[in-house]
Amino acid sequence: MNINILSRRSLSDCFERYSEWLETTRRYAERSRREYRDDVADVIQYLEERCHIRSVTMVQRRHLTGYLAHCGVLG
Fold first, then answer.
1. What is the pLDDT of residues 7-62, one digit of tens each?
2. How many CB atoms lie within 10 A of CB 8?
3. 7: which of 15, 54, 60, 69 lies 20 to 30 Å off by Cα?
C-alpha cells in the first residue's frame, strides 16, 4: 500500500478494516475474533491516549515496546 495513503489512514479506520477482515477472511470462532479485536483495541487506545498517535505511519517500534512494558510483558 502506498505510504501516502497510509499516512492519511487513522488508527480507528485501520481497526475497522482489521475487524472486517477477521469477519470475512478468517474462520475463527466468535470468541477468538472478539479477543483479537479487544487486543488490538487496547493497543490503539494506548497509542492514541499515551503516545498521541492518530496515523498509522506515526507508529514506531518504541511505541509498541512501550505498550508491552505498560502491559508488564517486558521485564
1. 578 999 999 999 999 999 888 999 999 999 999 999 999 999 999 998 999 999 99
2. 11
3. 69
What is the rounded distance in angstroms from the CA atom of residue 24 to the CA atom of residue 3? Answer: 25
Residue with cell 514506531: 60
Q: Please name the helix (run of DSSP H) or strand (run of DSSP E) that holds residue 58, with its range, or none.
A: none
Q: What is the pTM of this model?
A: 0.80
Q: What is the C-alpha to C-alpha distance for residues 32 and 22, in angstroms, rounded to an integer?
A: 10
Residue pointed to by grid coordinates 485501520: 14
For the chain, what is the radius of gyration of the CA atoms?
13
